[in-house]
Amino acid sequence: MIQVLIGKKGSGKTKTLIERVNDAVDTAGGDIVFISCDTKRHMYDISHRVRMVDTSGFALKSYDEFYGFLCGLISNNFDISNIYIDSVFKIVGTETDGLEKFFEDIEGLAKHYDLSFLFTISMDTAQAPEYVKQYAS
Prior knowledge:
Largest sheet: 5 strands, parallel
Radius of gyration: 14 Å
Number of strands: 5
Helix content: 25-40%
Shape: globular
């Protein structure tokens, strides 16, 4: 399952994401992963039981590279049930170029491994493409 929190910068998406991450600690059926390009900023806001992954040192430049990165995480730990991704545009360094195919690939990955993904995307909800709006949470 894929869900997306859409909103303009400063609209509270990350705060909502962190609340959902911490809520999942007690309800998730497996391990939880929080991915951001700056996890130090949220280190004290997120439960110590959540695996935090900082992508800043991996020089990800496309959605294909990020998809491979996610596959690597999953292949290393088959107990992952929930993956939370903050500011996907900052992680990949681009906005919507390649995002539709990425979501299609993530949807297949989520179904195959019974995973739940939650992304934050900074954009005006009214201007979001339909393929993004369908996942709006």
